[in-house]
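Can you give me the bound-state structure? Components:
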Amino acid sequence: MNFDSSAAHNAGDGSPLAYRKAGVDCDNCPVRAVSICCALGPDERRQLESIAHRTVFNTKETIFLEGDRSGSFFNITSGAVRLFRLFRDGRRQVLGFRMAGDFLGLDMGDQRGFSAEAIEPTTACRFGRPQFTSLVESKPHLLRKLHERTGQEIGLAHDHMMALGQRSARERIAWFLLSLRERQNKASSADVIRLPMSRQDIGDFLGLTIETVSRTLTLLARENVISITPRTVRLRDARRLAKLGTS
Amino acid sequence: MNFDSSAAHNAGDGSPLAYRKAGVDCDNCPVRAVSICCALGPDERRQLESIAHRTVFNTKETIFLEGDRSGSFFNITSGAVRLFRLFRDGRRQVLGFRMAGDFLGLDMGDQRGFSAEAIEPTTACRFGRPQFTSLVESKPHLLRKLHERTGQEIGLAHDHMMALGQRSARERIAWFLLSLRERQNKASSADVIRLPMSRQDIGDFLGLTIETVSRTLTLLARENVISITPRTVRLRDARRLAKLGTS
DNA sequence: CGGTTACTTGAGATACGTCAAAACGAGTGG
DNA sequence: CCACTCGTTTTGACGTATCTCAAGTAACCG
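Here's the bound-state model for the whole set.
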């Protein structure tokens, strides 16, 4: 939540290059400009960097498991991560995908509410809980920024619920592709969408089977709405997709 | 999020009766003990009460609409509320139900991300945004409590997504009934569950049609798992229901 | 190049949706 | 107290989107 009306805290940053010189682990993160760090001034940022550990995860490597004690927080700097929960019988719901610039650990308490795995080689800045906690407690800016992020996360969850509860398979796929595109090309609207996740991941995210995902994609391709290449999709008729995928 | 390990802030409250004497609008709220207010000491609480306006909503009355400017926050003191979003074509997803003790307005920014309507006569404490904001900014306890609540809300959303994405109609209904029971009888496990919402609301919450909801309920009744009376359900075989509704 | 995993495609089954009508409950007026 | 109406809930018959099972093809990697 963002308790004052000025949501645009992001302004007032100096050039991103200005922070390159700090001699810490988490240096040269290319995404710092879009991360939580942008809530901070230069010296505060240096403080944050001083407690950051650069971490690397391989494909399929577990970042944390549901039920684990939440001992650290992560700011993803490259790659992609899937968040999920399992039923006892093996069914899996993918709760979301997180990429460069996203923060892991916003969600409350002492225990992780879900598991996280890298779906491709991923780098992140890790913050130990005690250090991060005490930093946050002393920096209202940062707390507010995190709170704002948490609010955005609820918004994402709501979008997801709309898709799962009300949309057809076609519509879900369209929505999924469009929201991926939006995240990947923040500014431009380039028409090539990278799909770092498998069909199974997409299915478990959208509440569909892998077969339905595949079928729906090839159908859209037959209709010249998209074209499919391994691990990417190219948008051919964005308007038509939007007609399906927008509320 | 709860940045320190001591989640149990709720302790250390004096007797709930101690706060009855303050001569303000939002007096004698029976649920104050479970509300955000319990993050505060007596004097802080009095401060909070001094900016609260007791508000009443009739059945079907709109509390706020998606897209509205978020001009206030609510702490529900009795009754029940549905939160929902609409598609352009009229489809509706109910995002959740909120009852006594729940807080409305946790979700971020300047604009409401969804609509809220009373589903039965409802009372709430309303807080104007400016007053509430400035109070929160000066009370780290309160901010932390709100943050914690927001985290819980994400947890609820995840449970909901599990249900929508992975469960059958039967399982969704079972989960729904069980989670309602849990909320209503925090302590005891009385077996009578009140359903203030209509079948349509339940359907739109669970991503099912009204007919499927009805059929599934009557089926469970035929199997002596529950028995149905207007606006209530009685649990006859909680164990069997739990087998369906638990992850 | 062979083995493995991911993806696609097909045919058939089913859970749930749709459409339509009947039963029920609550409120109103005679 | 009964009859009437209106909205909600239940029930039925039928259609279909999606799932399941199974096989085939393509991509990846040593």
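A couple of observations. The longest helix of chain A spans residues 140-166. Residues 168-169, 208-209, 211-212, 215, 230 of chain A lie near DNA strand D (CB under 10 Å from a C1').
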